[in-house]
Design brief:
11% of the residues lie in helices and 53% in strands. The protein has 192 residues and is mostly beta strands. It is globular and about 40 Å long.
């Protein structure tokens, strides 16, 4: 059972085909596509995008994402937006975080509630931590993500805002699978 199958249970089967395909991986997959990216022009938003490696603004920006399941319930995601890299690890929450998806990057843990609804998978940030310590709700960014499908294409739409800073970045686009690794590659973070 994959990470997303474990979290979503029977609801996983109701997801659009391209979303199911990318979240049912047992081997590494490389995808590519395009995104339209809008970012706020204020200095706080610019700094957050730079520090977090979030994409720069642009239209029809080349995107690649490599998904690397490790066979033990974690996935490593390596994203590139016009050369800017953003990598993280995904895993299912346990104990106090049971039922949540945890995205780890650097010292931060982002805790997402996943909800299949109306032909899409919605992600909503419900908590965050730094170095394992919970941060107050008032400091939590608003991150809303939607995944859906169009034919064989995987569609994504992600909006990020921070308290005091406001809107930071909004990007949406599509991905197609370009290569699936069928050998022993089970999740090296440096494999793309």
């Amino acid at each position: 059972m994959t990470l997303f199958q474990r979290i979503l249970g029977a609801a996983f089967d109701d997801l659009p085909g391209p979303v199911r395909a990318l979240h049912a991986l047992t081997t590494s997959v490389h995808t590519a596509g395009l995104a339209d990216i809008r970012a706020a022009a204020n200095p706080g938003a610019w700094l957050l995008c730079k520090v977090a490696g979030l994409p720069k603004p642009g239209q029809s920006v080349p995107v690649s994402v490599s998904f690397h399941p490790d066979g033990r319930g974690r996935e490593f995601w390596n994203r590139r937006f016009a050369g800017r890299r953003y990598a993280s690890t995904m895993e299912a929450g346990r104990e106090r975080d049971d039922g949540l998806l945890i995205e780890r990057f650097g010292p931060f843990d982002l805790l997402f509630r996943l909800e299949p609804t109306q032909g899409r998978l919605a992600w909503s940030l419900v908590g965050w931590r730094v170095l394992g310590m919970s941060l107050p709700a008032w400091s939590r960014p608003i991150i809303e993500c939607s995944e859906s499908g169009d034919g064989t294409r995987f569609l994504f739409d992600i909006e990020v805002a921070f308290p005091l800073v406001g809107h930071v970045v909004h990007y949406r686009g599509w991905l197609d699978v370009i290569d699936q690794v069928h050998t022993g590659d089970r999740g090296s973070q440096n494999s793309d």
